[in-house]
Write a structure and sequence with these properties.
single chain, 259 residues, alpha/beta, 2-enoyl-CoA Hydratase, Chain A, domain 1, 6-stranded mixed sheet, 3-stranded mixed sheet, 16% strand
Length: 259
C-alpha cells in the first residue's frame, strides 16, 4: 500500500501521522501532496489549538523516498518543483496552533528539516538525526540549515551538513534541537500532554507568544530558503553534479572542478 499522511482531529487537538512504515515513513510526491493539503486545512481552522505531528512504525521519517526520485511526471522545472515544496511546507507558519513533532527512530534529510520548521520537537530514546545531502551531491534545501544555525551556531551546523554524520537524541537535547527525550513507549502520551497543556491556555496568549518567537528567527529562515532555491537549482545543472552521477554510474573516482 502506498504511503499516506493522515489528519485526525480530536476536540482542539489535531494529529498529523506519517504512515509509510515499510519505508520508515519516507515521503514521495503523493505523500507531499497529502501533507500540504492537510496543512492547508489546518491553517484555515480556528478551532484547532495544538497540532501533533507523529509517525507510525520504527521512524518518524527517513526523508525522501529514493525510489521516487526521478519519477516526476509533471512539466514543472526543478526550480518550480522546489518552489512548490517551499510554499507547501511554509504553511506550517500560517497555522494558528503550535505544532509539536514527536520523533522516534530516524528524522532524516528533508524530513528532519521540516521538523525544524515546527514549534516544538520531542523525541524517543534512540532517535537519530541526519542531514546527508552533501554526500549525494546536493545541499539541504528546506530551511534546516538556518534553523540549526539559530539554535546551535555555525560550528555544529557545518559539522552536520558537511560530514553528514548522525546525531543522537542526547546530543540533540544538549543543543536544544529537541526539548525532551522520553522512553519510546511514552512518546505519544508526552506529546498529547503537551498539546493539552497548550490547548488549555488562552488562545490569544499562545498566538502572541509564538509571534514574538517567530519574529526573532523567521526572516533569516525565509532568506536562507530563498538562497537554497537558487543554489540547489544551480547544483542540479552543475558540472560537478553531472560528474558525481557519472562517476557513481561508472564506479570510478570523481574528478571535480568546483563548477
Amino acid at each position: 500500500m502506498a504511503g499516506q499522511v493522515h489528519l485526525d482531529v480530536d476536540g482542539p487537538i489535531a494529529t498529523l501521522t506519517n504512515d509509510n512504515p515499510e519505508k520508515h515513513n519516507a515521503f514521495d510526491d503523493d505523500m507531499d501532496a497529502q501533507l500540504f493539503a492537510a496543512l492547508g486545512e489546518l491553517k484555515g481552522r480556528s478551532d484547532i489549538r495544538a497540532v501533533i505531528w507523529r509517525g507510525v512504525g520504527k521512524s518518524w521519517s527517513s526523508g525522501r523516498d529514493v525510489g521516487s526520485i526521478g519519477t516526476n511526471q509533471t512539466d514543472l522545472t526543478h526550480h518550480e518543483l522546489m518552489s512548490r515544496g517551499h510554499r507547501g511546507i511554509q504553511q506550517l507558519w500560517e497555522i494558528d496552533a503550535p505544532v509539536i513533532v514527536a520523533i522516534q527512530g530516524w528524522a532524516l534529510g528533508g524530513s528532519f528539516q521540516r521538523a525544524l520548521l515546527c514549534d516544538l520537537r520531542i523525541c524517543a530514546e534512540g532517535a537519530r538525526f541526519m542531514l546527508p545531502e552533501v554526500g549525494h551531491g546536493v545541499i539541504p534545501d528546506t530551511g534546516g540549515m538556518a534553523v540549526l544555525h539559530e539554535m546551535c551556531g555555525a560550528g555544529l551546523v557545518s559539522d552536520l551538513v558537511l560530514t553528514g554524520r548522525p546525531m543522537s537524541a542526547e546530543e540533540a537535547l544538549a543543543h536544544g534541537i529537541v526539548s525532551r527525550v522520553v522512553p519510546a513507549e511514552e512518546l505519544d502520551a508526552t506529546a498529547r500532554a503537551m498539546a493539552e497543556k497548550i490547548a488549555a491556555a488562552p488562545a490569544v496568549t499562545v498566538k502572541l507568544a509564538r509571534r514574538v518567537i517567530s519574529h526573532l528567527s523567521r526572516p533569516s529562515i525565509r532568506a536562507s530558503m530563498d538562497d537554497e532555491l537558487i543554489y540547489q537549482t544551480f547544483l542540479n545543472k552543475s558540472d560537478d553534479f553531472a560528474e558525481f552521477k557519472a562517476a557513481r554510474a561508472e564506479e570510478r573516482d570523481p574528478q571535480y572542478r568546483g563548477s
